[in-house]
Amino acid sequence: MKRQYLMWSAAAVAVAVVAVSYAARTDGTADPAPAVSRANALQTRTVALQEKLHARPGDAGTWAELGATYTELARAGADPSYYVKAQGALEESLKIKPSDNGEAMLGQGALANARHDFAAARDWGLKAQAVRPDSAEVQGVLVDAYTELGDDAAATASLQRMLDLRPGVASFTRASYHFETHGRIDEAKDALDRALAAASTSDERVFCHYYLGELAFNRGDLDEAARQYDQGLALNPQDVTSLQGKAKVAGARGKFDEALSGYQQVVNRVPVPHYLLEYAELLDQAGRKPEAAAQYTVLAEQKKLLAAQGANDDLTLTTVAADHGDPVEALALAEAEWGRRQSVLAADAMAWALHVNGRDAEALEFSDKAAVLGWRNATFSFHRGMILAALGRGPEAHASLTEALTMNPYFSPLHAPIARTKLAELESAR
């Protein structure tokens, strides 16, 4: 949902000392929701835990498990109200057992990551590590937090430890994301293939197929992307992430009716900001402006709802503001996010927000920060190309925009056409 330089050995998996990124195997936007069947299973588990606590209200371990389940439910159903319930349950666990309570500390770290409070997640992860030094789950919390905070060395060390402890789906997928963000796509795919081979449940296999599809889509291979999403849907026809992938491929192929129908199913079930934005931009591209405007209104309401529950998705909201007419708000959101984390995604958001405010010299500095890991990201290249064009650096702008479209001609229904138009302008000015 959130990849590293890996060294595979016969007996175990090791990671060289470079950076890691995963954040629930995401691309830095919104955490992808698990399948709806997963949400139903979590609801069942919640009821069982609540019944157990009625009989034993002083059971710190059950309170911690309930808190962790609420956090998963928030993500599975895009319902941030569960975050407050999670916090309450975890705090109750720590009240009952204030020390040596690794489960509750781990739960607090996972909750903080889910809310995008990565500094708090790091701090809770370190507390949990002191109590549970041999927990792969604790290392996963630290990998995600350090990655989003921009601390590559610490993220790598935590991933290495996680892989040493448990070379499975969670660690392989984190390793895969690291490889992708460092421009090592073949190794990213290899890591996901290993994750798929290690998967023991249908949900895990769906998860791996989705991200194999994302890797293919991000390099412009629509046939392979569709094949991977289809394999996920064969395992679970109701999986939201696979449905989103299929809708995205349909949109890239110009099949707007199919794409919009798919996205409508997705946002009706899991209205996270990232999906809402993709749906709105596709509606724009299809010429359905009033419906697109309605989705942007829903996005604004989602922002309020997330904030009320102590969570945020300001990277997505920065994009909305920057691309749809509110440069001042875009910069305010980007600056707030940069204050919380200094990942390459946050750097790119700062670069674009500064650009739409006409501050291109500063924007280029942040574009440099976004490029530091070597991620072959078409959106990053597009943003850089537009910034360079605004600075009058035509040949460099041409190279960056060409790179974006070569990497993935379908990277954005909004920006890919803009990139082509700007390239034509630059070529005519030669």
UniProtKB/TrEMBL annotation:
State the species of origin: Umezawaea endophytica
| Pfam families for this protein | TPR_16, TPR_2
The TPR repeats are found at 206-239
InterPro entries named among the record's database cross-references:
TPR-like_helical_dom_sf, TPR_2, TPR_rpt
Keywords (alphabetical) are: Repeat, Signal, TPR repeat
As given in the record, the signal peptide range reads 1-23
Spell out the protein name for this chain. Tetratricopeptide repeat protein
